[in-house]
Design goal:
By secondary structure, the chain is mainly α. It has one domain: Rhodopsin 7-helix transmembrane proteins (Rhopdopsin 7-helix transmembrane proteins), CATH 1.20.1070.10. About 60% of the residues lie in helices and about 5% in strands. Strands 1-2 form a two-stranded antiparallel sheet. The protein is globular. It starts with a helix and ends with a helix. Bound molecules: retinal. The site of retinal (RET) has 19 residues, from α5, α6, α7, α9 and α10.
């Protein structure tokens, strides 16, 4: 048994012994003030969801994609914040650094894993909002979303690990964040600018806002789950302000930017059952003929001058 510790180089079983896995109680926790703040953020997220859904109903169904994605983001956050306000959705994790500061003195910290479940669902949706605005090719979008999921999952695992190995996970997450930032700031911007100045301007606004905010998250993590420097109440305020900026404020900016952009311009041709058909599609079985005509039917057909079936005119007509 001793021999497994004597092998040179690999300290894994010594640093993370199985004896450390037992149920624990946390002694570095949020107070009632932290809970109050989490409830306040719950209300903000819930109100934003109602506003985004209400805005969706003001435009035709075929133009609601960004409203729906954005409302889904704040809807999920509402539930996550409800959970944290209730002092639920956490694990008690022994701290790597035992501090003397009374605000963080103790041996096990309350780590809200529900935060990461929220981010696992909502950060890909945020990126989708951004990358669909740029009209990026779908393989680039999918790959960036995968890197984003890696960032969130490694962040969660790092937060739940008690030894210094947590910083290994932090490093993986940072590498993923840099890749995401490269795609958003560089690749996305080139694509968005190519689609016209209105789209380029909207993209620059939401893209720059996002990348600025996203780089503040690892700082919050380093001070909270990572380094146990700030109290769980301060962690609540830090992440809460960031989440409000990155979700409801981001969503408002995005939908404002999209008010004059037809999703069809971005290659998002969405069909609705009551779309008017192009005269040439009305022959035969009417709507059935239109439904089978993937290339020209739906939104494009509805908004295009007779005989013209390309994307540019479809957009210009709206
Ligand atoms: C973690 C931990 C370690 C390193 C990095 C992280 C990045 C997290 C980010 C989260 C973004 C969340 C958003 C939520 C919206 O409400 C996981 C904190 C890089 C970028 C935008």
């Amino acid at each position: 048994m001793e021999n497994i510790f004597k092998r040179a180089g690999n300290d894994a079983l010594r640093e993370n012994p199985n004896s450390m896995v037992y149920p624990r109680v946390s002694d570095i926790n949020i107070t009632i003030r932290g809970s109050d703040w989490y409830w306040a953020v719950t209300a903000v997220m819930g109100a934003a969801t109602l506003v985004f859904v209400a805005l969706a109903f003001r435009v035709p169904r075929s133009k609601r994609i960004f409203h729906y994605i954005t409302a889904a983001i704040t809807m999920v956050a509402t539930i996550a914040y409800f959970t944290m306000g209730s002092n639920l959705g956490y694990a008690a994790i022994p701290v790597e650094f035992v501090r003397s500061n009374p605000k963080v003195a103790g041996t096990a910290r309350e780590i809200f894993y529900v935060r990461y479940i929220d981010w696992f669902i909502t950060t890909p949706l945020l990126l989708l909002d951004i990358m669909l605005t740029a009209g990026l090719p779908w393989p680039t979008i999918l790959y960036t979303l995968l890197l984003d999921e890696i960032m969130i999952v490694t962040g969660l695992v790092g937060a739940l690990v008690e030894s210094r190995y947590k910083w290994g996970y932090f490093t993986f997450a940072m590498a993923a964040l840099f890749y995401i930032a490269y795609n958003v700031t560089w690749v996305g911007r080139k694509h968005a600018n190519a689609l016209g100045s209105n789209i380029g301007r909207t993209y620059l606004m939401v893209g720059a806002w996002t990348i600025f905010l996203w780089f503040l998250y690892p700082i919050a993590w380093g001070l909270s789950e990572g380094g146990n420097v700030i109290a769980p109440d301060s962690e609540a305020v830090f992440y809460g302000v960031l989440d409000i900026m990155a979700k409801p404020v981001f969503g408002a900016l995005l939908l404002w930017g999209h008010r004059n952009i037809d999703p069809a311009t971005l290659g998002l041709h969405i069909r609705d059952y009551d779309d008017a058909m192009h005269p040439s599609e009305k022959s035969g079985f009417g709507s059935a003929a239109a439904a089978n005509n993937g290339a020209t039917g739906g939104v494009t057909g509805a908004n295009t001058a007779p005989g013209v079936h390309n994307d540019t005119t479809a957009t210009a007509a709206v």
